[in-house]
Amino acid sequence: MLRTDWTLAEVTAIYHQPVLELVSQAAAIHAVTQATGEVQVCTLLSVKTGGCPEDCAYCPQAARYHTGVQAHKLLPDAEVLASAQRARDAGSTRFCMGAAWREIRDNKDFDRVLGMVEQVNGLGLEVCCTLGMLNEYQAERLKAAGLYAYNHNLDTSREKYDDIITTRTYDDRLNTLEHVRKAGISVCSGGIIGLGETDEDRIAMLHTLATLEAHPESVPVNALVPVEGTPLAEQPRVSVWEMLRMIATARILMPNTMVRLSAGRQEMPVTEQALCFLAGANSIFSGEKLLTTPNPDFDADQQMFALLGLKPRKSFKDVPEGAVLMGRGKAPVEA
Ligand code: SAM
Ligand code: DTB
Ligand code: SF4
């Protein structure tokens, strides 16, 4: 049963179970709705880095913090295409292009990004973009260019949001997600833990995601990568138990969704990552860099896949084979 009417009390009860019970419940759901043993490998590329006018307290790309990130303008098309080709050859099935923009503007750079989307789509990769806020018309143009998914994270709860970002509102974020959904683009939206939020904030964010009109097809769970120069530089690292609670709760609430073990893997031993896969995570970002921060290198991930007997997941498999189509976009429908 796919539900979009979860109550906050239900989500709270799921999240606060003893951690091993929570993981085993999530693992049971994962086994029914997803191909266990398959993990999607995705690649990120920052096509426009740094100099962002926003004040996201976690972000090394905000112009107002001095983080040492080397800012650059929109990369040349050929460089982006070559990077996508390398990603595909190395086994990635999704390629996500990120830009340090507050929002998309209708200018030449956007026209160029549309061209990049078209070219990367032509390689047979799931093309994803994360370009900040957008309007309905811009979403339609991205869709027409062949965009498969759009990433736009809620990041944290509505209650915590103003402590982390003041240059836009939670409703701005939700509106963008609505435009993405309306254009028929696959929705990727998740958050970050380790920002100084409470369990209630984490629960509230998961509740918001799981009670959208339709579940996001993709929910990235990021552990804060504390970056020197940002206001959150001194935040303690999150523990695996916290990641497990987030991943497992997301898997239980949104059984058909890709749950992505995103930022924060660099510090995680394979044993901890294995627990995250058991709890329902079925995607990682591969390659030495996320957007601007380090990620485990390719060989280490290859070894992890071999050790755990994991297989890379094929592209365009949002709806798992064998599962009864759950009518995404409509809710709630019998599984
Ligand atoms: N500028 C666009 C936006 O904010 O939507 C797209 C790029 S932005 C870097 C994409 C996401 O990366 C953010 O929403 C946030 O969740 C994540 N992120 C940024 N810095 C991070 C950090 N230091 N640790 C973990 N996640 C981070
Ligand atoms: C997401 O949720 N995590 C990725 C992707 N979506 C765009 C980005 C993580 C960025 C981590 C900080 C950095 O490397 O700059
Ligand atoms: Fe800009 Fe996105 Fe970083 Fe916020 S998260 S500062 S909007 S690049």
UniProtKB/TrEMBL annotation:
Q: Which domain of life is it from?
A: Bacteria
Which keywords are on file for this protein? Answer: 2Fe-2S, 4Fe-4S, Biotin biosynthesis, Iron, Iron-sulfur, Metal-binding, S-adenosyl-L-methionine, Transferase
Which ranges carry the Radical SAM core domain? 37-265
Query: Its GO biological process terms?
Result: biotin biosynthetic process
Which residues are listed for [4Fe-4S] cluster binding in this entry? C52, C56, C59
Question: Which EC numbers characterise this protein's activity in its record?
Answer: 2.8.1.6
User: What is the catalytic activity of this protein?
Assistant: (4R,5S)-dethiobiotin + (sulfur carrier)-SH + 2 reduced [2Fe-2S]-[ferredoxin] + 2 S-adenosyl-L-methionine = (sulfur carrier)-H + biotin + 2 5'-deoxyadenosine + 2 L-methionine + 2 oxidized [2Fe-2S]-[ferredoxin]
Q: Which sites bind [2Fe-2S] cluster?
A: C96, C128, C188, R260
Q: Which cofactor does it need?
A: [2Fe-2S] cluster; [4Fe-4S] cluster
Q: How is the cofactor bound?
A: Binds 1 [2Fe-2S] cluster. The cluster is coordinated with 3 cysteines and 1 arginine. Binds 1 [4Fe-4S] cluster. The cluster is coordinated with 3 cysteines and an exchangeable S-adenosyl-L-methionine.
**Assembly information from the UniProt record:** Homodimer.
What is the documented function of this protein? Catalyzes the conversion of dethiobiotin (DTB) to biotin by the insertion of a sulfur atom into dethiobiotin via a radical-based mechanism.
Query: Which family is this protein grouped under?
Result: Belongs to the radical SAM superfamily. Biotin synthase family.
Q: What is this protein called?
A: Biotin synthase
- List the source organism: Hymenobacter lapidiphilus
Q: What is the lineage of its organism?
A: Bacteria, Pseudomonadati, Bacteroidota, Cytophagia, Cytophagales
